[in-house]
Design a protein that fits this description.
One of its GO terms (cellular component) is nucleolar ribonuclease P complex. One of its GO terms (biological process) is tRNA 5'-leader removal. This is POP1 protein. Helix 3 packs antiparallel against helix 9. The protein has helices at residues 2-18, 21-24, 27-37, 47-51, 73-82, 101-108, 123-126, 174-185, 201-216, 223-227, 274-281; strands spanning 42-43, 54-59, 62-68, 85-88, 93-100, 132-137, 146-154, 162-169, 189-193, 245-249, 256-259, 267-270. The protein has 290 residues and is of the alpha+beta class. A hairpin with a 6-residue loop joins strand 10 (245-249) and strand 11 (256-259). Among the domains are: 21-70, no CATH class; 93-190 and 245-264. The strands form 3 sheets. It has a 7-stranded antiparallel beta sheet. A 3-stranded mixed beta sheet has the order 1-3-2. A two-stranded antiparallel sheet has the order 4-12.
Protein backbone atom coordinates (compact mmCIF):
# COMPACT_ATOMS: atom_id res chain seq x y z
CA UNK A 1 0.00 0.00 0.00
CA UNK A 2 1.14 3.65 -0.41
CA UNK A 3 1.22 4.08 3.36
CA UNK A 4 3.58 1.10 3.83
CA UNK A 5 5.81 2.26 0.96
CA UNK A 6 6.06 5.72 2.50
CA UNK A 7 6.86 4.16 5.89
CA UNK A 8 9.65 2.01 4.34
CA UNK A 9 11.18 5.05 2.62
CA UNK A 10 11.03 6.99 5.89
CA UNK A 11 12.79 4.16 7.78
CA UNK A 12 15.46 3.95 5.10
CA UNK A 13 16.12 7.69 5.37
CA UNK A 14 16.37 7.43 9.15
CA UNK A 15 18.84 4.57 8.87
CA UNK A 16 20.95 6.42 6.31
CA UNK A 17 21.05 9.46 8.58
CA UNK A 18 22.32 7.51 11.60
CA UNK A 19 24.87 5.52 9.58
CA UNK A 20 27.01 8.03 7.75
CA UNK A 21 30.07 6.89 5.85
CA UNK A 22 32.32 7.59 8.82
CA UNK A 23 30.21 5.28 10.99
CA UNK A 24 30.12 2.57 8.33
CA UNK A 25 33.89 2.75 7.83
CA UNK A 26 34.68 2.59 11.54
CA UNK A 27 37.06 -0.26 12.29
CA UNK A 28 34.70 -2.22 14.52
CA UNK A 29 31.94 -2.04 11.91
CA UNK A 30 34.28 -3.12 9.09
CA UNK A 31 35.49 -6.14 11.03
CA UNK A 32 31.90 -7.17 11.77
CA UNK A 33 31.01 -6.86 8.08
CA UNK A 34 34.13 -8.74 6.94
CA UNK A 35 33.44 -11.60 9.37
CA UNK A 36 29.87 -11.85 8.13
CA UNK A 37 31.07 -12.09 4.52
CA UNK A 38 33.56 -14.84 5.42
CA UNK A 39 30.97 -17.32 6.67
CA UNK A 40 30.93 -19.21 3.35
CA UNK A 41 34.29 -18.30 1.78
CA UNK A 42 37.35 -17.61 3.93
CA UNK A 43 39.58 -14.66 3.05
CA UNK A 44 43.36 -14.77 3.01
CA UNK A 45 45.37 -12.20 4.96
CA UNK A 46 46.07 -10.37 1.69
CA UNK A 47 42.43 -10.44 0.53
CA UNK A 48 41.84 -6.67 0.63
CA UNK A 49 44.96 -5.99 -1.45
CA UNK A 50 43.98 -8.59 -4.05
CA UNK A 51 40.30 -7.60 -4.13
CA UNK A 52 41.26 -4.10 -5.29
CA UNK A 53 43.49 -5.37 -8.11
CA UNK A 54 42.24 -8.82 -9.16
CA UNK A 55 39.13 -10.58 -10.38
CA UNK A 56 38.18 -12.77 -7.40
CA UNK A 57 36.87 -16.33 -7.67
CA UNK A 58 35.38 -18.63 -5.02
CA UNK A 59 37.16 -21.98 -4.99
CA UNK A 60 37.75 -24.70 -2.39
CA UNK A 61 36.01 -22.63 0.29
CA UNK A 62 38.25 -19.59 -0.23
CA UNK A 63 37.99 -16.27 -2.05
CA UNK A 64 41.09 -16.09 -4.27
CA UNK A 65 42.50 -13.68 -6.81
CA UNK A 66 42.25 -15.23 -10.27
CA UNK A 67 43.46 -12.66 -12.82
CA UNK A 68 44.60 -9.03 -12.54
CA UNK A 69 42.29 -6.21 -13.58
CA UNK A 70 45.17 -4.36 -15.25
CA UNK A 71 47.64 -5.46 -17.88
CA UNK A 72 50.51 -6.17 -15.52
CA UNK A 73 51.81 -9.38 -17.07
CA UNK A 74 55.01 -7.72 -18.28
CA UNK A 75 55.56 -6.18 -14.84
CA UNK A 76 55.14 -9.58 -13.17
CA UNK A 77 57.51 -11.21 -15.63
CA UNK A 78 60.03 -8.43 -15.07
CA UNK A 79 59.74 -8.91 -11.31
CA UNK A 80 60.31 -12.68 -11.60
CA UNK A 81 63.34 -12.33 -13.85
CA UNK A 82 65.03 -9.22 -12.43
CA UNK A 83 63.54 -8.41 -9.02
CA UNK A 84 61.19 -10.33 -6.72
CA UNK A 85 57.57 -11.47 -7.00
CA UNK A 86 55.53 -12.58 -3.99
CA UNK A 87 52.62 -15.05 -4.11
CA UNK A 88 50.20 -15.80 -1.27
CA UNK A 89 49.78 -19.58 -0.97
CA UNK A 90 48.10 -19.52 2.43
CA UNK A 91 45.08 -21.36 1.03
CA UNK A 92 47.22 -24.53 1.01
CA UNK A 93 46.31 -26.70 4.01
CA UNK A 94 48.87 -27.67 6.65
CA UNK A 95 48.62 -31.01 8.47
CA UNK A 96 50.90 -31.38 11.48
CA UNK A 97 52.08 -34.78 12.70
CA UNK A 98 53.66 -35.04 16.16
CA UNK A 99 55.14 -38.19 17.66
CA UNK A 100 58.20 -40.37 17.90
CA UNK A 101 60.32 -40.30 14.77
CA UNK A 102 60.40 -44.09 14.27
CA UNK A 103 56.61 -44.32 14.70
CA UNK A 104 56.03 -41.58 12.15
CA UNK A 105 58.41 -43.04 9.56
CA UNK A 106 57.10 -46.59 10.08
CA UNK A 107 53.60 -45.69 8.93
CA UNK A 108 54.54 -42.98 6.42
CA UNK A 109 56.52 -45.51 4.36
CA UNK A 110 53.17 -47.16 3.57
CA UNK A 111 51.86 -44.13 1.66
CA UNK A 112 54.97 -43.44 -0.49
CA UNK A 113 57.65 -45.42 -2.30
CA UNK A 114 61.35 -45.08 -3.10
CA UNK A 115 60.56 -46.16 -6.66
CA UNK A 116 58.66 -42.87 -7.13
CA UNK A 117 61.62 -40.78 -5.90
CA UNK A 118 61.93 -38.89 -2.62
CA UNK A 119 60.49 -40.24 0.65
CA UNK A 120 60.00 -38.85 4.15
CA UNK A 121 63.25 -40.58 5.22
CA UNK A 122 65.51 -38.54 2.93
CA UNK A 123 68.46 -37.45 5.08
CA UNK A 124 68.53 -33.80 3.98
CA UNK A 125 64.80 -33.45 4.63
CA UNK A 126 64.75 -35.48 7.84
CA UNK A 127 67.24 -33.09 9.41
CA UNK A 128 64.89 -30.17 8.75
CA UNK A 129 67.25 -28.25 6.48
CA UNK A 130 65.26 -28.64 3.27
CA UNK A 131 61.67 -28.99 2.14
CA UNK A 132 60.72 -32.13 0.28
CA UNK A 133 57.98 -33.00 -2.20
CA UNK A 134 56.47 -36.34 -3.15
CA UNK A 135 53.30 -38.11 -4.25
CA UNK A 136 51.12 -39.82 -1.65
CA UNK A 137 49.26 -43.08 -2.28
CA UNK A 138 46.73 -45.02 -0.30
CA UNK A 139 48.35 -47.32 2.24
CA UNK A 140 50.16 -50.26 0.61
CA UNK A 141 48.60 -49.52 -2.81
CA UNK A 142 51.60 -48.16 -4.76
CA UNK A 143 51.67 -47.68 -7.77
CA UNK A 144 47.86 -47.49 -7.78
CA UNK A 145 45.37 -45.31 -5.85
CA UNK A 146 47.39 -42.10 -5.89
CA UNK A 147 46.13 -39.37 -3.52
CA UNK A 148 48.11 -36.44 -4.92
CA UNK A 149 51.31 -34.39 -4.56
CA UNK A 150 52.34 -32.85 -1.24
CA UNK A 151 55.29 -30.94 0.20
CA UNK A 152 56.65 -31.56 3.69
CA UNK A 153 58.98 -29.97 6.24
CA UNK A 154 60.46 -31.66 9.31
CA UNK A 155 61.02 -29.48 12.36
CA UNK A 156 64.74 -29.69 13.28
CA UNK A 157 65.58 -31.89 16.24
CA UNK A 158 65.50 -30.09 19.58
CA UNK A 159 66.65 -32.92 21.84
CA UNK A 160 63.19 -34.26 22.71
CA UNK A 161 61.93 -37.70 21.73
CA UNK A 162 59.05 -36.30 19.64
CA UNK A 163 59.38 -34.85 16.16
CA UNK A 164 57.06 -32.53 14.25
CA UNK A 165 56.25 -32.91 10.57
CA UNK A 166 54.28 -30.38 8.53
CA UNK A 167 52.60 -31.69 5.36
CA UNK A 168 51.23 -29.09 2.94
CA UNK A 169 48.39 -30.24 0.70
CA UNK A 170 46.09 -28.61 -1.81
CA UNK A 171 42.63 -27.91 -0.31
CA UNK A 172 40.98 -30.13 -2.95
CA UNK A 173 43.06 -33.10 -1.69
CA UNK A 174 42.99 -32.35 2.01
CA UNK A 175 40.06 -34.48 3.16
CA UNK A 176 41.24 -37.63 1.34
CA UNK A 177 44.82 -37.30 2.61
CA UNK A 178 43.69 -36.44 6.14
CA UNK A 179 41.42 -39.51 6.30
CA UNK A 180 44.25 -41.74 5.04
CA UNK A 181 46.71 -40.38 7.63
CA UNK A 182 44.16 -40.85 10.40
CA UNK A 183 43.64 -44.43 9.24
CA UNK A 184 47.31 -45.50 9.12
CA UNK A 185 48.09 -43.90 12.50
CA UNK A 186 44.79 -45.07 14.03
CA UNK A 187 43.95 -41.56 15.20
CA UNK A 188 40.32 -41.91 16.16
CA UNK A 189 39.94 -39.84 19.34
CA UNK A 190 39.53 -36.09 18.81
CA UNK A 191 42.14 -34.11 20.73
CA UNK A 192 40.61 -30.63 20.76
CA UNK A 193 37.82 -28.64 19.17
CA UNK A 194 38.50 -25.10 17.94
CA UNK A 195 35.61 -22.98 19.19
CA UNK A 196 35.65 -19.44 17.76
CA UNK A 197 34.00 -17.75 20.73
CA UNK A 198 31.55 -18.65 23.53
CA UNK A 199 29.22 -15.95 22.20
CA UNK A 200 27.47 -16.72 18.91
CA UNK A 201 28.27 -14.42 15.96
CA UNK A 202 24.66 -13.24 15.71
CA UNK A 203 24.69 -11.99 19.33
CA UNK A 204 28.06 -10.32 18.74
CA UNK A 205 26.85 -8.58 15.63
CA UNK A 206 23.80 -7.26 17.44
CA UNK A 207 26.00 -5.83 20.17
CA UNK A 208 28.29 -4.20 17.60
CA UNK A 209 25.32 -2.71 15.74
CA UNK A 210 23.95 -1.30 18.97
CA UNK A 211 27.31 0.29 19.75
CA UNK A 212 27.58 1.83 16.30
CA UNK A 213 24.01 3.14 16.36
CA UNK A 214 24.46 4.71 19.77
CA UNK A 215 27.71 6.29 18.70
CA UNK A 216 26.27 7.48 15.40
CA UNK A 217 23.84 9.79 17.21
CA UNK A 218 26.72 11.80 18.63
CA UNK A 219 29.26 11.82 15.84
CA UNK A 220 31.41 14.53 17.36
CA UNK A 221 32.04 12.38 20.43
CA UNK A 222 32.79 9.09 18.62
CA UNK A 223 36.25 8.44 20.04
CA UNK A 224 34.84 5.47 21.95
CA UNK A 225 34.07 3.78 18.64
CA UNK A 226 37.73 3.67 17.75
CA UNK A 227 38.51 1.97 21.06
CA UNK A 228 35.74 -0.62 20.70
CA UNK A 229 36.95 -4.22 20.60
CA UNK A 230 36.37 -5.78 17.14
CA UNK A 231 34.77 -9.15 16.62
CA UNK A 232 37.00 -12.18 16.96
CA UNK A 233 38.18 -13.44 13.60
CA UNK A 234 36.57 -16.63 12.33
CA UNK A 235 38.67 -19.69 13.18
CA UNK A 236 39.00 -22.46 10.61
CA UNK A 237 39.48 -22.61 6.88
CA UNK A 238 37.50 -23.27 3.75
CA UNK A 239 37.78 -27.05 4.15
CA UNK A 240 36.76 -27.41 7.80
CA UNK A 241 33.86 -26.17 9.88
CA UNK A 242 35.10 -24.10 12.85
CA UNK A 243 33.15 -26.27 15.31
CA UNK A 244 34.68 -29.55 14.13
CA UNK A 245 37.67 -31.21 15.75
CA UNK A 246 41.06 -29.90 14.59
CA UNK A 247 43.33 -32.60 16.10
CA UNK A 248 43.20 -36.34 16.61
CA UNK A 249 45.20 -38.63 18.92
CA UNK A 250 46.27 -42.24 18.48
CA UNK A 251 45.89 -44.20 21.76
CA UNK A 252 48.23 -46.93 20.48
CA UNK A 253 51.23 -44.89 19.27
CA UNK A 254 50.64 -41.45 20.82
CA UNK A 255 50.84 -39.76 17.41
CA UNK A 256 48.85 -36.54 17.16
CA UNK A 257 47.49 -35.21 13.85
CA UNK A 258 46.54 -31.53 13.91
CA UNK A 259 44.90 -29.42 11.25
CA UNK A 260 46.89 -26.15 11.11
CA UNK A 261 45.22 -24.72 8.03
CA UNK A 262 45.10 -20.89 8.05
CA UNK A 263 47.17 -20.88 11.26
CA UNK A 264 50.47 -20.88 9.37
CA UNK A 265 50.75 -18.45 6.47
CA UNK A 266 52.69 -19.45 3.38
CA UNK A 267 54.26 -17.10 0.84
CA UNK A 268 56.36 -17.85 -2.22
CA UNK A 269 59.09 -15.44 -3.35
CA UNK A 270 60.28 -15.75 -6.95
CA UNK A 271 63.20 -13.85 -8.45
CA UNK A 272 66.90 -13.10 -7.97
CA UNK A 273 66.18 -10.61 -5.18
CA UNK A 274 64.14 -13.08 -3.12
CA UNK A 275 66.99 -13.78 -0.70
CA UNK A 276 67.77 -10.07 -0.33
CA UNK A 277 64.14 -9.32 0.47
CA UNK A 278 64.06 -12.04 3.13
CA UNK A 279 67.31 -10.96 4.78
CA UNK A 280 66.15 -7.34 4.77
CA UNK A 281 62.75 -8.21 6.23
CA UNK A 282 63.49 -10.96 8.76
CA UNK A 283 65.84 -10.75 11.72
CA UNK A 284 67.37 -13.86 13.28
CA UNK A 285 66.30 -14.47 16.86
CA UNK A 286 68.94 -14.66 19.58
CA UNK A 287 69.70 -18.18 20.74
CA UNK A 288 68.42 -18.94 24.23
CA UNK A 289 69.96 -21.73 26.27
CA UNK A 290 67.99 -23.14 29.17
Amino acid sequence: SPHQAEKAVHQKKEQSRTKCRKARRRHVQLVAEFNRRQRKNIWLETHIWHAKRFHMVKKWGYCLGNSPTEKCYRACYRAMTKHCLLQDLSYYCCLELTGKENELLKQLTRVCSMDAGLTFEEACCLSGRFEGSLDLYRADCYPEAILGPVTFIWKPRDGSANRQLWIWVHPALKQDILQELKAIFQCSEPGEVCVPDPVTPSVQEEKQKAVVQSLGKRRKEDKEGEKAVPLKKIIGDGTRDPLQACSWVSPATGVVISDRSMEILRYRLIGPWAHCVLTGTLKAAALQTV
